Amino acid sequence: MEFTERHTDTAAIRTDDEHAGGLFRNLIASVWRAIAAAFSARRIDAPIVSTLLDLGTLNAEPAEIDLSDDAPERDPTTHLRTGAALTRSLEEAIDRARTASERFAVMTVSVNRLEALNAFFGRSLTDGLLREMAERLDSVPELGQAGYRAPNRFVFFSVPASDMAVTDTVQRLESRLRETFRVGANQYELSLSIGIAQYPDHGTSAPSLLHAANFARQCAKAAGDGHSVSVWCDPTKWEEQCQRFALETELRQAITANELRLFYQPKVAIPGKRLVGFEGLLRWQHPTRGLLSPAAFLDIAETANLMRPITGWAIRMAARQTRAWIAAGLAPVPIAVNIPPTEFVQRLLTEHLPAYERYGVPVRLLDLEITESERIEDLPAFLKVAATIREKGMKLAMDDFGTGYSSLSGLSTLPITTLKIDQSFTRQLPTDRGVRAISAGIASIARELDLELVVEGVETPQQLKILQSMGCTLFQGYLTGRPMPPEQAATLLKPTRRQQKRRFAKVIDVMARRRSIEPHP
Fold first, then answer.
1. Is residue 253 part of a domain?
2. What pTM value is reported for the model?
3. Could you list the active site residues?
4. Which residues of the chain have pLDDT under 50?
5. How far apart are CA 146 and CA 157, in angstroms?
6. Residues 34 and 177 in one domain
């Protein structure tokens, strides 16, 4: 079997273990308890094998460990250690290294495509592969203790004299597993993804070290594209990952802790500077980091499946604020909210709009924006929902137009009402002739298709003048109004006619009293 071997070494940089270990200790413990329960029930989708290597005690007999949970001590398939014994063994190695002031590496190894083999051929085949792998590992004296966990992870820890010793250990491991595996009449060639972390640089506890090594293994798997790759934990990426996990946890709490805010940026018609609407822009009032823009957390929300609650919150907040302005005697204007295509298709009509309507606000005061860079996976369903909201009198905008997936031919079929030119075009208008030509072309297309055109990111009079020469009339940007809290946005709204009459009556009454004239009834 031919392997493509790439070993990526990065300088070891000490990270704050209290941050990394404390963050993941409870998380990893909970995950391992769930794995143990799944193992006991034999619910194995893609087996994980964990092998422990202690080069400082190669000839020592494994110490007897009193397990504190119900996990079996030996796996019936591989006859390797499992359960709390694996974690306890690593903690004991940490104690020995701490006492001797030694450094050691933790390696996690997964077998590429083992999940696919399990799904296609069944557990009997993967169990056979695991048994043969366990036998090969047992025949390598350097590997010492061995254990088993599900799904698909070997774990090694050693006390090498140098980083080169760890590299040599990886090479011996790959060499032993390089031979073709035979299960029954079938032969299989496997490749590995290997992640390496180091004590104490990446952690001083079993959970933090294992998590750092697993993160490096995931990086190796992504880089390997099916080939064998080993990657040392990158301290910078590891710290970024720790921060992302911490921010994700805080963001989940922020949704229910009333820390999200909706700011309102005016959309203005020029000439006349007439307010025609607001775009509701998400902000996070972080308890320690202050007011955060979406750039600081939106990608985390997307990967953490938090867009559903955030989108629902934004739509409800738009309804609540519109209702408050009406109650205050102000004439409302539509508020635009950005909605991911998945939420638009799956939950707009069944969940988000009904929640909006419960505030007693007409849905025509809610505009929706789809970002062009987000791919529409189910176009027929999208068209059906879009047609429904058009019937309700709502507007649908294509946001950041010119930067994403939509084609010019698609504009004639998508039931949108508005195009929004992305601010990246607006910034380059004064200096880039090509951008001016593209922007003029978009403006012409919008006119021909009878679409409303809003230009985003207008910040200077020069930009405004160029856009007006193209026939653009609706603008959004710092020149016409920055994003603002609802109290400030309310000052831009005009009072309703009834409120105007009330105010006029009060003025007349005050004037009459000053002149000692009896006011008219």
1. no
2. 0.67
3. 456
4. 1-70, 517-521
5. 10
6. yes
